[in-house]
Amino acid sequence: MNVHDSEKMLGVLERQGYAETEDPRRADLIIFNTCSIRQKAEQKFYSELGRAKAYKKKRSKMKIAIAGCIAQQTGEGIFKKAPYVDFVFGPQNIHILENLASGCNASVVTEDNPHIAFTDLPVKRSDTVRAWVTIMYGCNNFCSFCVVPYTRGRERSRPSDSIITEIEALAEGGYKEITLLGQNVNSYKSDIDFPGLLRRISRIGGIERIRFVTSHPRDLSEDLIEVMADLPKVCKHIHLPLQSGSTRLLRLMNRGYSYDDYLGKISTLREEVPGIAITSDIIAGFPSETEEDHFHTIMALKDIEFDGIFAFRFSQRPGTRAAEMEGQLPEGIKSERLTQILKLQDEITERKNKALEGTIQEILIEGVSETDREKLTGRTGTNKIVTIPVVDVERGALISVEIIRGRKHSLEGRLIER
Ligand code: SF4
How many angstroms does the Cα of residue 59 sit away from the middle of ligand 1? Predict the structure, then answer.
């Protein structure tokens, strides 16, 4: 979502005559679009900010702006830490950049206004084949470890007509794949619900693939599963954060489901949508996590066999309930558990990728590989990266390939048909 917010900032600034530069020392404006979901990201931001201060010393007309979740949460407080910063604006206030050319005099804008959040801003997209489209903002779930409800505000859904208009324009512009963005897309609700929205989007000619992130397990409805099974354009991949295999911890996290509830959803998904890929998020070392809780998570990974996971050490985020909970674990234990989780998942992912050897997959070509100019990269509907030797196909082409090798993080294939 932050990446797409950056695309909006670039779009707004370009309309005012700004151009991107690779060299921050030559910039008239540096914007930090920040993330506060984990402490590490925040630490990294402050160290980069120190570097920008040095650039500004040498270039007096340079302005520095802080955007995103740290801006929203810290507000005026940023000036205490970094008085050389010029503007601070939250994720729902990107529109303030529209006033830069005329001299923006508001230095802190962190208003929570649903109309402002959905203002149609120009977007400078980083890709010409795949596009990200925001369908909702905010979250009402208040998971005990998460800052999102505080930084992005309460949940609100964008009107479906506005979403459809944006996607129709993308289809006309040659985009083939869209990813619908929201903190909890399953609870999208305007004049239609999320499955209804997917049905409408799948009728748009030119769009070949529809993806969405993120889904909350509690709100994963039978109707959505049916839509995933029935609509060919809806990719057979779901990212469904589990967070822990321990029901006791899930309760402390305020996730709203037990491990058994989660397992039930997984088996329905696999029954109704054969071949579906399921990925997840896991937190290692949540406060009071015992060896037994950790063991439940390890067993969950073995039982479910996700296609991939994002796993992180628990990070104490200021203002969240989990940050104040008793039983905070030493970093060493969290790291040890995280290492076990990642090692196990790597083995599972590699095994699952190897099982695809010899199968035929349809991939959407994304371009020449950044690490090997002799290869093209594409992605299966199940969101697995496939590389093939360079052939004469355009970006955005859908081609069939045979998987010849499954690796830990990607697949190797060869073209069999255009
Ligand atoms: S559902 Fe997701 S975004 Fe919302 S509070 Fe929980 S973790 Fe945060």
Answer: 40
Residue 159 has φ and ψ, to the nearest 5°, of: -55, 140
pLDDT at position 284 is: 98
Q: What is the pTM of this model?
A: 0.88
CB 388 within 8 A of CB 413: yes
Ligand 1, atom 6: closest residue by C-alpha: 143
pLDDT of residue 102: 58
Residue ranges in the chain whose pLDDT is less than 50: none
Which run of H or E residues covers position 399?
Answer: strand 398-406
| pLDDT at residue number 195 | 97
CA 8 – CA 92 distance, rounded (Å): 11
The reply to whether ligand 1 has any atom less than 6 angstroms from the CB of 141 is yes
Peptide bond into 214 cis (omega under 30): yes
The residue whose CA has the least distance to atom 1 of ligand 1 is: 141
Three-state helix/strand/coil letters over 404-417: EEECCCCEEEEEEE
> What pLDDT is stored for residue 114 in this prediction?
59
* Residue identifier of the C-alpha nearest atom 8 of ligand 1: 146
The reported pLDDT for the residue numbered 116 is: 56
State the Cα–Cα distance between residues 214 and 220, nearest whole angstrom: 11
Q: What's the pLDDT tens digit per position in 398-414?
A: 999 999 999 998 999 99
Q: Is 93 exposed, middle or buried (0-12, 13-18, 19+ CB in 10 A)?
A: buried
Cα distances from 74 to residues 173, 210, 318, in angstroms, run 39, 35, 10
Cα(210) to centroid(ligand 1), Å: 22
Q: In a 10 Å sphere around its CB, with 0-12 CB exposed, 13-18 middle and 19+ buried, how is residue 192 labelled?
A: middle
Q: 142 CB less than 6 Å from ligand 1?
A: yes
